[in-house]
Amino acid sequence: xxSFQPHKNDALIVVDLQRDFVTGGALAVSGGDEIVKxxxxxxxxxxxxxxxxxxxxxxxxxxxxSFTGQGGPWPPHxxxxxxxxxxxxxxxxxxxxxxxxxxxxxxxxxxxxxENTDLNDRLRTLGVTRxxxxxxxxxxxxxxxxMDAVGFGYRVxxxxxxxxxxxxxxxxxxxxxxxxxxxxxRLMTRHGFS
Length: 194
Ligand code: VGL
Ligand code: ZN
Prior knowledge:
single chain; alpha/beta; 7-stranded mixed β-sheet; 4 helices; 26% helix; binds pyrazine-2-carboxylic acid; binds zinc ion
């Protein structure tokens, strides 16, 4: 890890690092496995600095609108309480990490960790002004979470070495990154800001 040190008004959001999004899962994201260890090192970095860490999880009802059976684009995945919805963290999720359930409403895609959750209230209460975001997937839940964060007025840093894209179309992940950059999002890796 680099010499970057989180400050007191920073928080980390780890998006949907769940079994269904890695190898063997219902909606495996290519490159998903490789980012787990890096995300874990970011979690340790932020917790060690005394900063808040949030882990969102896709937490769908069985008949969620995004599933093919309901006319949606995805195979059933991350059904609340099932093995596929579990976090992948090798070291179990540290107790200090706050878990945010998203995609719970069956009528709504719920890609953003801010949609129908108390994430924004919690961040405001903590005095957080800058958010660091990593996880899965770049072109869906990471993208929507980041765009909502920008809309709520947070400064946002995308942790580029700890994200991976679904890439239904080959460029989707890159397009999402470009769009986030256009909205003022900065990019960082464990080697520093780029
Ligand atoms: C996601 C597709 C469907 C994600 C969630 O976490 O990016 N993608 N549900
Ligand atoms: Zn989902």
